[in-house]
Amino acid sequence: MLKKLLLIVLLTSYTFAMPKEQIVEEMTKSIHKVIDILKNKQLPKKTKGEQIIKVMDSSFDYKIMAMLSLGKEWRTISNEQKINFAKAFENRLKESYIDKLDLYNNQEIKIDELEEVKARLILKTTLIGEKENFAIDYKFYENRKNKQWYIYDVSIAKVSIIQTYRNQFTQYLKNKSIDDLINYLNTKNNQA
């Protein structure tokens, strides 16, 4: 079930970095566009994934997501390792949700509210399922350079995707190196 929810979260994040006052409107439009792509039975799975990724790339800050997923380990690795890990992590996120495109089963997303918490924004939404509903929170931060808002994390039923990855990576790094983790992610990406 968590895999299915993760798929919906990533697929409906078909938006782009935007000013704060446009987040709700743009996310609403984008969610409808993605759902239309998903419902198009004429498009092959790979094409659907490519279309969604093309636009999704500009909505997420993958470097920040990679940094947060490593936690304090990020500060201890070289610049080259940071670049390699960030790319491997970004590719793993993309490959993971393309693999799960078949899990989409006509769910809908309802936008509830945009909440400001300190210097962050949380777009609260609800995934309307056949049997139950799930809260999905898109977490945004403002890039100080361009004054646009980017997604840096998503919580599904109060479980953070970034925290989940951080827990997995922390366990992995207890016995292996960051280079081993990068190689592992790249191997998983190449298998997809």
From TrEMBL:
Keywords: Signal. Residues 1-17 form the signal peptide. It comes from the Bacteria. Pfam families: MlaC. This is Toluene tolerance protein.
